Amino acid sequence: MRILHIWDQAGVAHILAKYQSRQGYSCSVLRVKDQDKYGINKFYDQYVIYCSQEDFIQRSLKEAAAAQLIHVHSRIDVLLPLRQRFGKSKKIILHYHGTDIRGLDSYILRRDIGKFSQVIPLSKLLLKRLLRRRSVRYLRHKKAQAIADAVLVSTPDLLNLLDGATYIPNPVDTEHFRVKENPKKDGKKAVTIESDVTDIRWALNYCKKNGMNLDIEVYDRTQRPIMYQDMPEFLKRYDVYVDIRYVSGHVLQNLSKSALESLASGLEVVDYRLKYLRGLPSEHSPSSVISRMSNIYCR
Fold first, then answer.
1. Per residue in 11-37, pLDDT tens?
2. Quick one: which of 176, 187, 175, 146 has its CA closest to 163?
3. Segment 193-206 mean pLDDT
4. Could you tell me the residue range of the domain that residue 257 belongs to?
5. Which residue, of 33, 193, 210, 291, has the greatest Cβ tally within 10 A?
6. How far is CA 116 from CA 99, 100, 109, 207, in A?
7. For the chain, how are helix, strand and coil distributed in percent, rounded to 5?
8. Residue 91 in domain
């Protein structure tokens, strides 16, 4: 069977393509050329088909013609063209990964924009335009979900935002991220990674207020990108990864992809409860994820 992955988030599609190919599937990932901030496309280059941004929809349709199953990651804009072109002759999977769906609930939209308008006064007209724009996005997602044969989410919390979705854990490439040899015994060196959407100062204060005695280094990956190829070596410099992410007024309870990669590399991970975790949970191993994905594909 030929599987076409359309788009990618945090390397998930690439890892699926790699390990699905080993099970005899013909797999590829369609990506836009030159959009590879962290070098993930380059690392999994043998599975990638490149196209231009302008040609993305048409190239998706062209590549999908030769596929029996189409696995769409986040890009809801391709769902309707695919279904219009192929009808029910091909199975189409829609896969959400977090920021692509969080905050789109119609009530949350109104609440958050209302809070925003209290900080920065907005005219009634501008507020209506903001609400209308976000509501249109919400309706587009609902339509895409209705078109798909199955809807998947990569973290359990996203199940609360969707009806009838299935949770599929994020896979970690355990050939790339492996337990480091000869770990240090003299104290623990901790790190956390800053991103565009997290409030890192809140997280550090949260640790301090709760008596966590760790000297935590903050690495700003937005300013100093770490290439995916180099991520294992980066993690091996540390003993603990602090995975406390405060986003839009909420503490995220799922483990981030970096936290999972840290566990696979032998680091301890401090989660949102300030609990220390050790060892990659088996549900995130490629073989486990591929097995669960195969069950979805065959329904």
1. 999 999 999 999 999 999 999 999 999
2. 146
3. 89
4. 190-279
5. 193
6. 19, 20, 11, 27
7. 40, 20, 40
8. yes
